Amino acid sequence: MPTATIEADDAEVLVSVASLWEIAIKSALGKLEVPDDLPQRVKELGFELLGVTAEHAWAVRHLPHHHRDPFDRLLIAQAQVERLPILTADPVFDAYDVTVLWGSG
C-alpha cells in the first residue's frame, strides 16, 4: 500500500522538481489551485526534492513512445536512472520499465 510505504520510518520520499514545474504551469494557467509555498511545504513534510540532471533529460531519448506527456516521460526517465519506484495512479506508467506504486490504492 503506497501510504504505508511513504509513512514508513525508513522511507525516503523524493519529489521530482519536474512535478513542481508541471504543478506551477497548471497553477499559472488556472487549472490547479495550490498553495504559494508548495515547495516549502514539500520539504516540511520531510520529502526530499529530486533535481533534474542532464542524465535524466538525456535518458528520455531511449523511452518508447507509449506516452507523449513530457513531464511524465521525464519522471519515468528519472525513475529508471535513479532506480526508484514511481507513485502514480496513471496506468500508462505500466507500459514502461519502472516499478509503479499505485496512488489510488
Overview of the molecule:
The chain is of the alpha/beta class and 105 residues long. It has a single domain (2-102), classed as Rossmann fold (3-Layer(aba) Sandwich), CATH 3.40.50. The protein is built from 5 helices and 4 strands; from the N terminus they run αβααβααββ. Strands 1-2 form a two-stranded parallel ribbon. The protein has a two-stranded parallel ribbon with strand order 3-4. The longest helix is centred in the C-terminal third of the chain and has 13 residues, at 70-82. The termini are close together. The relative contact order is 0.16.
In which order are the strands of the major sheet placed? 1-2
The CATH architecture category equals: 3-Layer(aba) Sandwich
Question: How are helices and strands ordered from N to C?
Answer: HEHHEHHEE
Distance between the termini: 6 Å
Mind telling me the CATH class? Alpha Beta
Percent of residues in beta strands:
5-15%
CATH homologous superfamily (4th level) name: 5'-nuclease
Shape: globular
The amount of helix comes to 40-55%
Low-confidence stretches: none
Mean pLDDT: 91
Content-based structural category: alpha/beta
If helices are DSSP runs of H or I spanning 4 or more residues, what is the number of helices?
5
Tell me the major beta sheet: 2 strands, parallel
Number of strand segments: 4
